[in-house]
Specification:
alpha/beta, five-stranded mixed β-sheet, 13 strands, 27% helix
């Protein structure tokens, strides 16, 4: 786990308190807005969620793989394919309430404050962050860092996705190296992050596997916000009042047959301090 130790030691640290309101999402995999774009089906739900968080003064932390840069070479194609989404992100950024991390699918954005040009001007982009809550540390990263093929050898993985697995997926084959599509790979990643969190007495919040997780307080300290490309909506982690919970955003139809974007709690709020009690 030396790699995680090194990343942790160089992570920027942000102090938060009971007044802080934070939402964490990841794995949007925004594409070009065409039939190959996995984000497209949930874009309305995602934008509805962002409008809620913007209105209610949340800071939005995107935990990697926000953009699908393994399948799309030009970020401008993604921006043009999702103009309403990037307008919302722009509003978060203007209010200094946008923090963006990279995953394996958008790692090339790392440390490039002008990657998005004028629309997200001077946006700092990180590999990891530490949220310091009353001396308790929450380590945020995408999670691919413990997945050798998707970290050290990410360029090989990108080549395979672009030229082999993307065409094969169109006829029903799944990428066996993907943590999001292979249960065995996902469990291996999760176990490594879980072990590191317990060994170092830190909460770890990640994405990458697309599997939402909020542990019982005595179980472990590994959390996962899920993804924005679930068939039944998107999931997120909310931090508020010194607690953390897992939520799902989807659509519902009222008695007048009107469709709306709605939020439901998957878990109750659990105080962050509870995860550090003896």
């Amino acid at each position: 786990m030396r790699k995680l130790n090194k990343i942790f030691s160089s992570s920027p640290k942000i102090d938060i308190d009971k007044k802080s309101k934070i939402v964490i999402m990841s794995d949007c995999h925004r594409g070009e807005g065409n039939n190959d774009d996995n984000f497209l089906k949930n874009e309305t739900i995602y934008n509805g969620a962002l409008k809620y968080y913007l209105k209610n003064n949340f800071t939005y932390i995107e935990l990697g793989d926000g953009d699908e840069l393994w399948e799309v070479k030009n970020i401008n194609n993604i921006i043009n394919g999702h103009k309403s989404t990037f307008k919302l992100l722009e509003n978060f950024n203007k209010n200094k309430r946008l923090l963006m991390l990279v995953g394996n699918h958008d790692i090339e954005k790392l440390h490039d404050n002008n990657y998005y040009g004028e629309i997200l001007k001077d946006l700092s982009i990180y590999e990891s962050l530490i949220l310091n809550y009353e001396g308790k540390e929450l380590f945020l990263l995408h999670g691919h860092q413990v997945d050798l093929l998707n970290s050290t050898f990410w360029r090989i993985s990108r080549f395979l996705v672009r030229h082999i697995w993307k065409p094969l997926e169109k006829i029903g084959f799944n990428d066996p190296t993907s943590a999001a599509k292979n249960y065995r790979v996902a469990k291996k990643v999760e176990k490594k992050l879980e072990n590191w969190s317990n060994d170092n007495n830190k909460i770890v919040i990640a994405g990458h596997t697309h599997r939402p997780i909020l542990p019982e307080t005595k179980e472990h300290k590994y959390f996962n916000d899920g993804s924005c490309v679930h068939p039944n909506g998107i999931t997120a982690l909310e931090i508020e009042h010194g607690g953390i919970k897992l939520v799902r955003w989807g659509t519902s139809v009222n008695d007048d047959q009107l469709v709306s974007v709605t939020k439901e709690d998957i878990t109750n709020f659990i105080l962050i301090s509870n995860f550090f009690e003896d």
